[in-house]
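PROTEIN DATA CARD
Card holder: Sec-independent protein translocase protein TatC
Chain length: 221
Origin: termite gut metagenome
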Amino acid sequence: YIYDNVIMGPTRPDFFLYRYLCRATSAVAFMPDFCDDAFHVDIININLASQFFRHMTTSFWLALILTFPYLAYELWRFIRPALYANEKENVKWVFIFGTVMFFLGCLVGYLLVFPMTLRFLAGYQLSDLINNQISLDSYMDNFLMLTFIMGIVFELPLLSWFLSKLGLVNRSFFKKYRRHAIVALLILSAVITPSGDPFTLSIVFVPLYLLYELSSLFVKR
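Structure generated from the sequence above:
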């Protein structure tokens, strides 16, 4: 069930994101048509043992992601005795916030970033003579990489708070480099979803920009 409906979900036209964007197509004039029921991605296996080893490695990564709160809690229990009372309270909220943001980032990676990347790249053709058949290893590598990377990216507010505590950044830093950040995030969004239409670009850019603004709220003035 997990492989067919969760991991392989973005390969089917009835995936949650595609159905939602299909309904929005009639309301937004400049967005591409997501109501293409013919969309599908052929996943093939080209190595004898790939499916077996992918089963093992995927189970490991999913277990690592799902047990992240417990691992964070055990780390907290390990360092707690060495902290003062006020430090214990601060660190406790750091672990809670970091865990929530990590899962939120993974969710954004799974529901938004990976499907949009897959939909573009799976349909891109250098030549009509070339058919896209995605290997299982290629699909799983990109799936796990983008999901996990987004989880790490969403720790930016926590990193900003930590750097602020060290006196390395302050709120004026984010204000000063806001325009630079916007350009960098637009470039990053274009790389993630290189379809060329402004709607697809914006649905990746907006969460990343909001993350930048959220980070600025976690630092000292």
